[in-house]
Amino acid sequence: MRRDRRVKLVATIGPASESEEMLEKLFDAGVDVFRINMSHASHDLASELYARIRRISDRRKHPIGILGDLQGPKFRLGAFEGEKVMLPIGSTFTFDRTDSIGSDARVFLPHPQIFEAVEPGHTLLLDDGKLRMRVTEASADKIVADVEVGGPLASRKGISLPDTLLPVGPLTDKDRVDLSFLLELGVDWIALSFVQRGQDVLDAREIVGDKAAIMVKVEKPQAIDDLNAIIAAADGFMVARGDLGVEMPIEKVPGLQKKITRKARAAGKPVVVATQMLESMISSPVPTRAEVSDVATAVFEGADAVMLSAESAVGKYPVEAIQMMDRIAIEVENDKGYEAILYAWHTEPQPTAADAIAAAAHAIADTVHLSAIVCYTATGSTALRVARERPGLPVIGLTPVAETAHRLAVVWGLHSVILEKDPDSVTKMVQQACRIAYEKGFVKAGEGILITGGVPLGQSGTTNLIRIAFVDENGEAQASG
């Protein structure tokens, strides 16, 4: 089967969507990648979800990506007497390391890393940013802060520190156990939370290796400061606008979304825009006009994918939410102004042979008015480079490596097909590409395709060949050059 859009759809699995029947309905509605959130899923449930998705993929003969999302560090307060206190503006509040019931003057903070790193002048955000404090005094066992934005504060609410570079990596003990499990399970992508610097990604890479691709969730202000190093180290990105909007002024998030999307596109690495995209559809069968515009903006910017969270995990209308995302994306991609906006910011090819071939493939396909670009790829790098150019025609990735096909499911404009084996000659390569493009409905008799591959055949990292072929009425190669 093929999709009629280029942007991909990611859906989070939860109680509303975890049955195999519902997962298949979501796939039919348009889902390309399913997200398993390890903040809520047990290992037994994650294992069963993985098996269900793979069965659907096998039945439909269509690669489906699976994203395992690690929880990351969570910083929470201790308990208050009566479970809640009121903190007025202008009052002084203390966080300490004494494990006792808190009051409207102090509370236990069970995270020594915060005491090590916080400094006077730093901002503290509590309960998803509803309360804000400014640190006036910091030591190894006490933090004193003035309340700048007050209100009720309940037990065990979260605390964020947007100004503080915390001496913690993105992997907690729980995350390491979950990561080992997910890698053994065989998920395609690992979403890494709480990344602050490029080194965090490199540290995770030592564990992950080549067993999965790493998708960094950009959700910390410190990550923006080291964004270039993070982009160099990661395989993909998620703009986690919820957490980012808590720790930074919310009006900065749209600009950061554009910045991250452009930098990821320039690097040829997929970027997913996430959080609150169709939030009202958790309880309503239709979204707000503002939400529709939000999704459309991400599509216009050339994001590889847009993601649903609670809408598909616990919402009343998971299928309708995916169908709405699908319709919005198709409408935007058919808009007369779409290409002008998409190409307003051009990505320069990197000085490599593979990048030169990808750029040439785009230019040739446009000049000759071909119907599709077909990429033979083992690792997915060739297909990623071609997709980075955002060509105005379908890109088909042919690979004998199932893991590669699954990982490419999140990439803009890519339709992956798993081969039994690589062809053993250029002639067979051209014939196979024409037949698959014809059978999948990407090309009609008399139309042409562009084929990229590598010689010697079957070796990764050898993309050095371009062929043009036209398809006859039987779906065979009519001519090539």
Description:
The chain is α/β, with parallel strands linked by helices. It has 3 domains: 230 residues, TIM Barrel (Alpha-Beta Barrel); 80 residues, M1 Pyruvate Kinase, Domain 3 (Beta Barrel), CATH 2.40.33.10; 128 residues, Pyruvate kinase, C-terminal domain (Pyruvate Kinase, Chain: A, domain 1, 3-Layer(aba) Sandwich). Helix 2 runs parallel beside helix 4, helix 5 runs parallel beside helix 7 and helix 7 crosses helix 9. Strands 1-2-3-12-13-14-15-16 form an 8-stranded parallel barrel, surrounded by 6 helices. The protein has a 6-stranded mixed sheet with strand order 6-5-9-8-7-11, with no helix packed on it. Strand 21 and strand 22 form a beta hairpin.
Straight-line distance between termini: 29 Å
Q: Tally of extended strands?
A: 22
Query: Can you identify the CATH superfamily of the largest domain?
Result: Phosphoenolpyruvate-binding domains
Into which percent range does the helicity of residues fall? 25-40%
CATH topology of the largest domain: TIM Barrel
Largest pleated sheet: 8 strands, parallel, barrel
Q: What's the level 1 CATH class of the largest domain?
A: Alpha Beta
What is the radius of gyration? 24 Å
For the residues shown, what is the average pLDDT?
93
What share of residues are in beta strands? 15-25%
Shape: elongated
Give the low-confidence spans.
none
In the CATH hierarchy, the architecture of the largest domain is Alpha-Beta Barrel
What order do the strands of the largest sheet run in, or round the barrel if closed? 1-2-3-12-13-14-15-16
Total domains, how many? 3
- What's the total helix number? 17
How is the quaternary structure best described? single chain
Q: What class, by secondary structure content? A: alpha/beta
